[in-house]
Design goal:
The chain folds into three domains: 91 residues, no CATH class; 172 residues, Nucleotidyltransferase, domain 5, CATH 3.30.420; 99 residues. The protein has 15 helices and eight strands. Strands 1, 4, 5, 6, 7 and 8 form a six-stranded mixed sheet that branches. A two-stranded antiparallel ribbon has the order 2-3. A hairpin with a 5-residue loop joins β5 and β6.
Length: 452
Amino acid sequence: MADHFKPLDRDTLFLMPPSVQEWIPEDHLARFIVDVVAKLDLQPIRARYAGRGSAAYQPEMMVALLLYGYATGVFSSRKLERATYDSVAFRYITANQHPEHDTISDFRLRFLPQLEAIFAQVLLIASESGLLKVGRVSVDGTKIRANASKHHALSYGHATKLERRIKAEVTRLMRRAAQADSSDQNDGINIPAELARREERLLAIDEAKARIREREQERIAAEQQAHQQRMAEREASERETGKKIGGKPPKPPSRGIDAKAQINLTDEESRVMPSSDGMIQAYNAQATVDCASRMLVDSEVSQRATDRTLLAATVIALGQLDPKIGIVTEILADAGYYSAANLDVCAQAQIVPYIPNRRERHAGGLQRFQEPRALGPDASLVDVTRHRLRTRGGRKIYGERKSTIEPVFGVIKHILGFRQFLLRGICKVQSEWKIVTTAYNLKRMHKLGLAC
């Protein structure tokens, strides 16, 4: 039988040195990210190198390596190092260099603020290319696991019980030490060492309880403020309608420390939050997407499990966007962001809010074609907002929320595979979330076919 197979030769050397430019197609994501990074101002990173010791890797290469890694689901420094050997795309980015995982990890930690600032630069590049012009935006939050287990936590109640038990052990050890002084027998226990170990544990427990008390005072103050706001809204509604609201008024929050309040011993700045997977140790990652381009224009991280108190910070951040990017005119958010105070914040920023006061039901039958009655001239901001969402135009605009912001979280969590932060602490987590959202924007720009 004739041999119709192509020859396979792994031993013959190339006559000419191979070029990394030939390794990947022209429209490859790795090539696109390298081109975008070449346009970034990385002088703040370069300025921090002292110029001593062995030569460092080029900042452009390290930044492109991290961004491409996050854009393709490779987050850990060890996996990034391995990818520079195994992946042709990563070899192209590093120009066949192989930075060690320690170098990659140190670069990420050392330049977190500078890497966070790249988010705004990428938005400007998208804006200058005509791809991004902010107007209507959609905001939402998602819970992302912290780099800590919820089981490695200490509650205030358990800490108090543990403190009492250890103090009882210290008393018994002191009594035993007194008996040993009056006796010639040695039972083999190093009592000073045991006492020192327990004193160290008591000190750690006392510090943990102090942090929990401080955190609880903040929670109590926030709940008290929210209760006063709800009561004020209730009284304002009764004055406007002239009718007393039925049912019992909201109960004032307790001023005592919750015995179940806890602190995580691995990442004390993370919080236990509800999610689709149950209660998890997490952070609340916020994101704001431009409805037209589906690009993220703001991303923040919060320790609060609920979204209601987070809209004001988002509105402030949107007001600080570069004018070249555009001016936010409308904001879409679900009922979790609704409050009269948030509506006031939007009005002061001259942003039209589309925020329902409760979860909206689908309008059935002919109701979806009907327009509500016109409001009177003395209608409140709350009434105006509710009326806007009942109009056909308002329902159509609000319907964009699910098709804009929610797919973004789907891509980040299920396509990129980012479901857990690598870093710990709110400041580092905030910077890492900026890196993630920058990588998402680059992937989105590449998908839309932006030429660099």
